[in-house]
Amino acid sequence: MIRRPPRSTLFPYTTLFRSRAFHADRPPVWPIFKWSHDDKYFARLVPDAISIYETPSFGLWEKKSIKIKDVRDFSWSPTNNIISYWLAEDKDVPARVCVLEIPNRSELRTKNLFSVADCKMHWQKSGNYLCVKVDRYVKLRREKNEKGEKMENKYYGHYCNLEIFHMREKQIPVDSIEIKETIIAFAWEPVGNKFCLIYGDVPNICVGFYDVKAGGTVTLIHKLERMQCNHVFWAPQGQFVLLASLRSVSGALTFIDTADMTIMNHTEHELASDVEWDPTGRYVVTAVSWWGHKSDSGYCVWSFQGKLLRQCNMDRFCQLLWRPRPPTLLSVQQIKDVAKNLKKYSASFEVKDRLALTKASKELIDKRRALMKDFRSYCDKKAEEYNEQKADRLRLRNGIDTDELDSHVENMEEETVEFFIKEEIVQLGE
Length: 430
Known about the structure:
Layout: E1 7-10, E2 20-23, E3 34-35, E4 41-46, E5 49-54, E6 59-60, E7 66-67, E8 71-76, E9 82-87, E10 95-101, E11 106-113, E12 116-123, E13 129-136, E14 139-144, E15 151-156, E16 159-166, E17 174-179, E18 183-188, E19 194-201, E20 204-213, E21 217-224, E22 231-234, E23 240-244, E24 252-257, E25 262-268, E26 274-277, E27 283-288, E28 298-303, E29 308-313, H1 332-340, H2 346-358, H3 362-388, H4 390-396
Antiparallel strand pairs: 1-2, 3-4, 4-5, 5-6, 5-7, 8-9, 9-10, 10-11, 12-13, 13-16, 14-15, 16-17, 18-19, 19-20, 20-21, 22-23, 23-24, 24-25, 26-27, 27-28, 28-29
């Protein structure tokens, strides 16, 4: 029996004909391929190199891989054809983080790092910043593994550093932040210059919100202590953030407005395993997947303020995804003009909001206005008839005008009614 090596196959979705197959030389790490923002390139990690392929030919770019000794991981910029990667330490040679521009292969920035155990790269969605979370150690030992078969690195005295690359500034300055506690989660604000950090050990979990300013300044703007959370989920448009304790019994959820750091709501969704914001940032779904829990599967829909809008328990519920929103047809300048003149249109928006709130349609309002107009016309007509009949009323009432109460005071009689009240004083005991 011949055992074939595992392979990955790429298919263009328009033709569904196989374009190319790749054999896995080692156990694959998902994702096997990482795509550039414009789908012009895709790349994979191979021993001591990064192989970049181009579309639509799916051939190796420039017919050779980028040779990088001890490269451990890489990541594409979400807005430019730029790759960031890091190299492990090799004896006296320090670890390195590099930013490489494609296709000219020019190194935009490098950063040397010492005592590095691992690195994780986090790009901001707008491509303005790159954060490299560096796990460092105080002491390193070579020890045998549990089976006693081979030597492995054992790290002692862990601490973390955050290296912030300012990608839009000249020469790409880098800021460093040292975090003594264990970092649990990190997430950039998609649109803006803030990031959120969860760190610490149970029960002293802390959440820090940091602001990155031009010129290389990173400041802590707010800190929350003793929180129950292990994941950060920013709204697609920024500002609002959901702190969630996923895959835990409590399922704690905290909704925060980072404009003034207001906690809008504390709530729970027990055993929640997934969180999905809708593309507008107005709604968010928390779900209990059947893949993780065989009971109590279902989902909840929340407003961005943390108000529960719908709860649905569903047997064997696995996953919920929002329909992607198509890109806007407006240019960047048009979006800025709308934001600048938004107050001009606020009055009309408020009228529309009131109409939606009262559920009164335009046709119903027009009908009510027509009825009011007919009623006023009828009142005016009857008032005119009443005035024309005044002479007849005077003749029938012997010349006495009864249209007004105080028209004939001499014909009125005053009557006084008195009530006698008994007054009694009662002494209350102490």
